[in-house]
Design goal:
7 helices; four-stranded mixed β-sheet; 193 residues; alpha+beta
Length: 193
């Protein structure tokens, strides 16, 4: 069911708020990775907290964007699913989109519950609260990573769960580009059906 044309502007603006924030973090991270790959010593001294803020923002915004395309509930008379279907169609969003991954969406939304479960088994081994490294460290002892970013595979680890960042970042940038085009086209979504 198509979306009422005047309503498209609201969804475009709401989504742009998330993708613009994500885009800033993506560009920051890509510039930092480029500096690292070129051996820029000052990049190695970048604040871990700042880097993790950018990574967490990307994940958080991806989860927020995801809800527009795949709502948790269909809503009364399919209201939410109809909106989601119209948005997915307008942005050629497929089920294999990295934004469709519920693990990604839930990783920060239910972080407190995940932390409880993660610690409930009293794991033993090496505990790494925050790590930024070239790749996953090799160890004979179990490694428990609270949060980490490995630059070569571009993987963000949160409570031991690995998130491939490049597909997520690319999809957010793609959606942002479509939204910017839609905004320039007098706040109209393109329709592919």
């Amino acid at each position: 069911m198509p979306m009422h044309p005047p309503h498209e502007a609201f969804y475009i603006d709401c989504l742009l708020w998330h993708t613009t924030s994500a885009r800033k973090s993506v560009l920051f991270l890509l510039r930092w990775l480029d500096r690292i790959s070129k051996g820029d010593e000052s990049a190695k001294g970048e604040s871990k907290a700042l880097l993790f803020d950018q990574l967490q923002n990307i994940i958080q915004q991806a989860g927020s964007v995801s809800r527009y395309f795949w709502p948790a509930r269909p809503g009364p008379d399919g209201l939410h699913e109809n909106r989601a279907s119209a948005l997915r169609d307008s942005m050629t969003m497929q089920e294999d989109s990295p934004l469709h991954n519920r693990d990604l969406r839930n990783s920060l939304e239910h972080f407190d519950e995940r932390l409880d479960r993660y610690l409930a088994d009293f794991p033993v081994g090496i505990f790494e609260p925050d790590d930024i490294n070239y790749d996953t460290p090799s160890t004979d002892v179990p490694l428990h990573t609270f949060k980490a970013f490995y630059t070569v595979p571009k993987v963000f680890v949160l409570l031991g769960v690995r998130h491939q960042m490049l597909p997520i970042m690319n999809e957010l940038l793609r959606v942002h580009s479509i939204l910017m085009f839609s905004k320039a086209a007098h706040y109209r979504l393109s329709h592919h059906k």
